[in-house]
Amino acid sequence: MTAVPFMSCHGLAPQEGDQPAGSDTQLTGVNGRLLERVADLEWRGLVHETLGGVAASGTGATGVTEALHRLTGLVVTAEDCFGNLQAWAGPTGSAPPAPLPPRRRAQLLGNARRSPEPVRQGDRVVAVAQRRDEALGVLTLVDPEQRAGEPELFVLEHAATVLAIELGHRRSLVELELRLRRELMDDLLDGTDDESAVSRAQALGHDLRRPHQVLAVRWPGATTEVALTHALETAVSRVVDTKPLLGRRSGGVVAVLPCPDEHTARRHWNELYRAVTERLQPPGGAIGVGGGCSAPSGLPKSYAEARRALRVRVASTSPAGITVDHDLGIYRLLSPGTDDAELRAYVREWLGPLLDYDAASGTDLVMTLLRYLECGGNYDAAAHALVIHRSTLRYRLRRIREINGRDLGTVDTRLNMHVAARAWQMMQGVT
């Protein structure tokens, strides 16, 4: 049987007479290529092992850049899809490279997304970490000496794949958590059983076994609901030292958070309002606070109370601020509900002629009456609140007495007309 030719990697020696004369050079070349191939396979195995370890560790962009630097010796950066630096790695004493100008970066990113392989531009070699057609991040080798060759490009390409998987996984987790939080908030505000709510909240890092209450927030000056949500979350985390459950409803934001100690509740809510105001400009938002409840099944009631407190605050002469439902007093009886026929009848009884006159003439006498009564009958304060002259106010009040046929000097009349005007305001949603 003919002997196997010599291959140094297998530790086999050539036998005399097994190869024709002059074959040593050829054999040396074969062995050399084989050694190169073995070395290449070992290198690729090291790359896969290193990057696989990064993927398993969950260290994200930091782990990827550090591994890529170890394998290539070059400075490495990882950016998000907007060009913000997420992580970088390089030799001791080095600094992250300066970002590319926006136009140059956009051009380089466009070229990299169209190429199946890493792309070089000047001293940068770039690979895009993307999921399907969506760019999630960008990996860059900084190579001013132009020494990155096939091995470095191989590592960069595989590192970009690992980064894409990591970023895609994290985005999926974030999207899942947001969806679960949104669904939990909807169920809490609409009504759900206690056991399910507690277990679902616990999975999201919230303890609903403690007494909680609902906040309804409206901030006309906020640029977006996202900005309002972030400001409220930051403020609650600072004041309450906990992360609230947040949702969006009716043009505002709703929060579920633990009840404060009853002895410090007023100071607590004022601090929370100031903390939100510090983060949102211009100021002028309103917050309504519902009552506390010992179980999640009580949160729909707290939510209704928070909305009522918010309506009262928005409809008041000082619409900016925070109102707690517990402090509403008689106004807790005025919020329209599913059966508000009696309340509407009460409003008609005391304000009917004025409401009809305003509707027919396009005037605003009911609001004039309300502002006057809420200013305690002070002419100057009421005129200022209505932005009219004092004599104009006197004329309107005289017309109100003529049309409504009631004497505002009588205590009972004054009280009932004030309550009726407040109830009308709340039902109309007038600010």
From TrEMBL:
Residues 365-423 form the PucR C-terminal helix-turn-helix domain. It comes from the Bacteria. InterPro entries: CdaR-like_regulators, CdaR_GGDEF, PucR_C-HTH_dom, PucR_C-HTH_sf. Residues 191-312 form the CdaR GGDEF-like domain. Belongs to the CdaR family. PANTHER family: CARBOHYDRATE DIACID REGULATOR, DNA-BINDING TRANSCRIPTIONAL ACTIVATOR ADER. This is Helix-turn-helix domain-containing protein.
